[in-house]
Amino acid sequence: MIRIKRQNIFDMKTDPIYIFRKTWATYQKVISNNLMFHREITTAVRKLLESRQGPLNVLDLGCGDAAHISKILDPAQVAEYCGCDLSPYALDVARNNLEPLGIRVNLLCRDMVAVLKEAPEKHFDVVYSSYALHHLPTRDKQTFFNECGRTLRENGCVILVDVMLEEQQTRPAYLDSYNGAVATLWKALTPYERDQVQEHIRNCDFPETPTVLHMLASNAGLTTCHRLEKQTWHEAWCYLA
Ligand SMILES: C[S@@+](CC[C@H](N)C(=O)[O-])C[C@H]1O[C@@H](n2cnc3c(N)ncnc32)[C@H](O)[C@@H]1O
User: Fold this and answer.
1) Which of 7, 45, 120, 194 lies at a C-alpha separation of 20 to 30 Å from 106?
2) Does the CB atom of residue 86 touch ligand 1 within 6 A?
3) What distance in angstroms lies between residue 24's CA and the mean position of ligand 1's atoms?
4) Which atom of ligand 1 is nearest to the CA of 87?
5) How many helices (H) and strands (E) does the chain have?
6) 207: nearest Cα among 133, 140, 145, 139
7) pLDDT tens for the chain, residues 1 to 241
8) Which residue, by CA, sits nearest to atom 19 of ligand 1?
9) Element (H, E) at 158
């Protein structure tokens, strides 16, 4: 019989690498079963970027493992890719995912608002953020748009992929409906994985309606916006000055 010492079990629960691997494995399962519509959203974002003239300086905020952006970007069109994330483990995977593109890559293990505040003026052509902005409180989302407006070059754009409230929907109503959908539709996950996801949503999801995001973007001088894709609460938008 194999005995596991109590201490080892405790280590497994608090070790950040273990936690990262555990929750990241669940997120990978969510993606491979297209539960957050990465497939449709990736297609829509790729179509938009194809219409943009390179060479592009791209800033990716909350890039995670950069698995999707590395499939979206055409290396011939990119001058520089800068990604940031709070997780050093995700960035290690991102480095591997981006390497085959052969582009200039700069990965920063930092908070996205701090990175934006220090970004050079009129430097980036695309600020991209996928499923990360909803973690921030509303005032930091305003700072996000303000700083995007400052660091974007002429004709630059913000591409925002995120969960969004339905118009008029409150956060408690969103939590009920989204977690209800996880319980009934996310059958590809085990009950334990579904619990993990629901807990994450309850603790970390602070989405806004598209109208509120448009208002925050407008306050920052990004007055033109259009929706690229919408699948239930999962949306992709483009904001331009
Ligand atoms: C759901 S994952 C999305 C990853 C990737 N962008 C995608 O679409 O698959 C959210 C990522 O945002 C990162 N994140 C959350 N808050 C952040 C912050 N304030 N600054 C930087 N990264 C953040 C997390 O570490 C995580 O890797």
Assistant:
1) 45
2) yes
3) 11
4) 25
5) 10, 7
6) 133
7) 333 333 343 344 445 455 566 688 899 999 999 999 999 999 999 999 999 988 999 999 999 999 999 999 999 999 999 999 999 989 999 999 999 999 999 999 999 999 999 999 999 999 999 999 999 999 999 999 999 999 999 999 999 999 999 999 999 999 999 999 999 999 999 999 999 999 999 999 999 999 999 999 999 999 899 999 999 999 999 999 8
8) 111
9) strand 152-163
How many other C-beta atoms can be found within 10 angstroms of the C-beta atom of residue 21?
12
Please choose from 135, 162, 196 the residue to mutate so as to test ligand 1's pocket, defined by most ligand atoms within 8 A of CB: 135
| Residue closest to 36 by CA, chosen among 167, 207, 156 | 207
Cβ(132) – ligand 1 distance below 6 Å:
yes
Ligand 1 lined by 130 (C-beta under 6 Å)? yes
Burial class of residue 81, CB neighbours in 10 A (0-12, 13-18, 19+): buried
Atom of ligand 1 nearest to the CA of 31: 9
Which atom of ligand 1 is found nearest the CA of 64? 27
**Within a 10 A sphere around the Cβ of 55, how many other Cβ atoms?**
12
Tell whether pTM > 0.85: yes
